[in-house]
Amino acid sequence: MFQFWGSRTYSGAEGMENPGYCSGSFDGLHHPSDDDDDEMVDIAGATLDFSSTDDVPPLSSGGFEDYSTTTGSSSSSSRAAGMNGTGPSNLVDPLEDPLPGVGTYEDFNTIDWVREKSKDRDRHREITNKSRQSTVALLHSISDAFSGWLLMLLVGLMAGALAGGIDIAAHWLNDMKGGVCLIGFWFNHEHCCWTSNETTFQERDRCPQWQSWAELITGTSEGAFAYVVNYLMYIFWALLFAFLAVTLVRAFAPYACGSGIPEIKTILSGFIIRGYLGKWTLIIKTITLVLAVSSGLSLGKEGPLVHVACCCANILCHLFTKYRKNEAKRREVLSAAAAVGVSVAFGAPIGGVLFSLEEVSYYFPLKTLWRSFFAALVAAFTLRSINPFGNSRLVLFYVEFHAPWHLVELAPFILLGIFGGLWGALFIKANIAWCRKRKSTILGHYPVIEVLVVAALTAIIAYPNSYTRMSGAELISELFNDCSLLDSSQLCGYKQPTNTSETGAGNSLADRPAGEGLYTALWQLALALVFKMMITVITFGMKVPSGLFIPSMAVGAIAGRLLGVGMEQLAYYHHDWFIFKGWCSPGADCITPGLYAMVGAAACLGGVTRMTVSLVVIMFELTGGLEYIVPLMAATMTSKWVADAFGREGIYEAHIRLNGYPFLEAKEEFEYSSLAVDVMRPRRADPALAVLTQEGMTVGEVETLVESTHYSGFPVVVSQESQRLVGFVLRRDLLISIDNARKRQEGVVSASQVVFTEHAPTQPDDAPPPLRLRGIMDLSPFTVTDHTPMDITVDIFRKLGLRQCLVTHNGRLLGIITKKDILKHMAQIANRDPESILFN
């Protein structure tokens, strides 16, 4: 059905211009004209200045040693050289020296997975062979094998330390909106009151050492004027933190905005976004993440921590040659770093590994699984050593529920799953519509004003309600809480039992009738639910670091707590109903509202992200509630099924599509009966495909062809008449080789013949010397026949990480299919704008 010319893919890529203001938007990209609609890759305005000062320098900047082989090498090495598109080194004329830049990638290009893996196999084979010859080489081999584990150790330590610092700083700045500690302004509210002997059980947060802004300014904490002062100071600090966050992002690191997970997924699939994982992005994202969370905006720090961990990994990769010079190996490290990010965000190392495997990774070999586990373990240990929560626990929301759940409760758990699925589908549609409006209207031109307006709106509405005033993590912790007899929380405002027989067994409390305090709390929670659902839609996607885990969990936890209290009161007043008979007797602790909050949080997060296995593991690691895995599984699966009924995309896939990233979703099935000839370029009405011939073209003609097109690579054919495919050569490598030949080889002029054959043809004596470029040609590009079904072609692209393959008929070149062509074809079939792909 289809054929391969060797076992590799070409090095071309879908190039794009520099991005707009934020990584979440490519508004500033070049839109191709009609005549380059059939392009393999558009890299208009590509520069030949390879002395890059970007955060992530081009690979193999030291030269070309990984690509050149000697003519006396073994047959296997010669085959590998052919795989790498180099051939024997004595044919690389004009130069025998390393050629800087050849084999590297432009910004906004996709890597060649097969070539990168082939390079690594060749490198490993060479090290293994040398290790048998000397002790020094053996030690080098051992250090090379150990370098991956050492890198994982460093990534875990660095990410864990940064996450601990972010947690501590965010807690301190969040409390600063309410007041200041007199014994040291650097203490947060909880630490300030630790040493005080004047706190009471009912007012454990009140101590003389901590004063609100009203007490400092007016001398009193009571009365309307004090309330107004505190209100205004809360708004002032919220606006200041939001302004600092958006200004720092805009001025120093535009890539630091947003969640980062859609871009991480795209990068892990092979796309290159230089600077996205660089040192400036890391520094600014770390600082502005603290400021954004502290401003009170409806966002979390968990998603951005994945970006922070990946930045750490990318920077540390430059310490090791094996990872610095190989993009595929670097992506294995980034997959492990994504696991580290979730591990430090939630204190869930196993959940982090599963998250990386299920949600973000494109290529995840078994070796990466082990290293991810090790790195997540080190990161969790580092975070535990720092102890940012001050409770000597690794988990964020530790719970101790005493009552077991009953089979009848699966019905409300599934109801929460339905709510989570509906909320997830609604949120994705609303958020994408808002982000599209932001990109297409004047709103997107004023990111600072937008952030300030949303921050002011959030602060003004949030302050009067204690449940929206507190941070998202504190709110979830409060909702997960199981009421004890002396608990002073409003959510525990039950009427006290009149006799000791109603206090329940052991440490648990019997179900009690709701008191006035609980009714007040329920009204506040209902208002908080509506507010959170609406404000999160417009907050996610703004030009500040913004995660979605905590806001989604907060929505679900509120809904779950409301349902849990309703079930509890139903069981108390109607324990004789048939659904409660036999397991819920008077005076028993039947219903645990905190458990419903936990299940609701998982359901809403699952509905938004479509995570399943990793989410359940994260939730029970997060809370320590091992015995509640079945309710969590039921709610998570229900939410995914319900949300999938409205659209199979999660929020991250939706943002990938919105921004036009070249990402082939592995979960999406290609269900159409088209053939390769239907998708390939050129189409019938298009100009013929631009090709090079293996001999007969001059340097001037090649330069003219390159300058008159924006293609990133050119097929090489025997002749224009036969169109028999010989190989493929990259625009970048072609330009570098010609430029170097003109500078360093005498006699190369515009009239010099460009030759891709093994032996140069006979020329007149007075002719200038030919330029032989067989060494930079890919001799084995992937090909499919014109009648190959597109579902097979799409599978090949996904599983081998191709950017393109050539289409032939009986060995004769017909056209080319790029990843962009496939994405455009899929968009067209789905009635979406095909021009949004790559050029949004």
Structure description:
By secondary structure, this protein is mainly α. The protein folds into three domains: 151-386, Clc chloride channel; 411-495 and 508-650, Clc chloride channel (Orthogonal Bundle); 676-830, Roll (CBS-domain), CATH 3.10.580. Helices cover 50% and strands 5% of the residues. It has 28 helices and eleven strands. It has helices at 75-83, 113-131, 135-176, 189-192, 213-218, 224-252, 261-268, 279-294, 302-317, 321-324, 327-346, 349-360, 366-386, 410-440, 447-462, 466-469, 472-480, 516-539, 549-573, 593-609, 613-623, 629-646, 651-658, 676-679, 699-708, 731-744, 790-800, 819-829, and strands at 179-181, 210-212, 692-693, 697-698, 713-717, 725-730, 753-755, 771-772, 783-785, 804-809, 812-818. Helix 14 (410-440) packs parallel to helix 23 (651-658). The longest helix is centred in the N-terminal third of the chain and has 42 residues, at 135-176. It is elongated, with a radius of gyration of 31 Å. The two termini are 35 Å apart.
Keywords:
disordered N terminus; transmembrane helix; voltage-gated chloride channel activity; Clc chloride channel; 28 helices; CBS-domain; 3 domains; 50% helix; 3-stranded mixed beta sheet; mainly alpha; single chain; Chloride channel protein; endosome; 840 residues
Summarize the SSE layout with pairings.
Elements: H1 75-83, H2 113-131, H3 135-176, E1 179-181, H4 189-192, E2 210-212, H5 213-218, H6 224-252, H7 261-268, H8 279-294, H9 302-317, H10 321-324, H11 327-346, H12 349-360, H13 366-386, H14 410-440, H15 447-462, H16 466-469, H17 472-480, H18 516-539, H19 549-573, H20 593-609, H21 613-623, H22 629-646, H23 651-658, H24 676-679, E3 692-693, E4 697-698, H25 699-708, E5 713-717, E6 725-730, H26 731-744, E7 753-755, E8 771-772, E9 783-785, H27 790-800, E10 804-809, E11 812-818, H28 819-829
Parallel strand pairs: 3-5, 7-8, 9-10
Antiparallel strand pairs: 1-2, 4-7, 5-6, 10-11
Helix pairs in contact: 2-3, 3-8, 3-9, 3-11, 3-13, 6-8, 6-15, 7-23, 8-9, 9-11, 11-12, 11-13, 12-13, 12-21, 14-18, 14-19, 14-20, 14-22, 14-23, 15-18, 17-19, 18-19, 19-20, 20-21, 20-22, 21-22
